[in-house]
Design goal:
By secondary structure, the chain is mostly beta strands. It has strands spanning 5-10, 15-18, 21-24, 27-32, 38-43, 46-51. The chain has a domain at 5-51. 0% of the residues lie in helices and 30% in strands.
Length: 107
């Protein structure tokens, strides 16, 4: 089972005498393996969390965040179209009857 954090001591780990107690200026740094960019720094019971990353969870050893997609160019302007609701009704030409067809003749 893989651990999710790497722990590292940073700073001066030497113990110094201060009055009747001892003090150390080292801090413990915890780095997340699962969430790249997540760090926790703690010293003397106080801690702080920092996250600077892409918000992408690492899922395999070959993890590499992808770049964002290319921004599309402006679309071309559409061609002019007839008015969908004209103020005047369009003129409709009457259809002429085809040859051989016609109005019945009076006999």
């Amino acid at each position: 089972m893989e651990t999710a954090w790497i722990s590292k001591i940073a700073g001066d780990s030497q113990q110094y005498t201060k009055g009747e107690s001892t003090i150390s200026y080292a801090v413990n740094v915890l780095k997340s393996i699962r969430w790249p960019g997540a760090l926790t720094v703690c010293k003397g019971g106080k801690f702080t969390n920092v996250y600077i990353g892409y918000g992408i969870k690492r899922v395999d050893p070959s993890f590499n965040p992808t770049s964002p997609p290319q921004v599309d160019a402006e679309p071309s302007d559409p061609a002019e179209q007839p008015e969908p609701t004209p103020l005047q009704e369009p003129v409709v030409k009457a259809e002429e009857p085809a040859e051989g067809e016609g109005a019945p003749e009076d006999e």
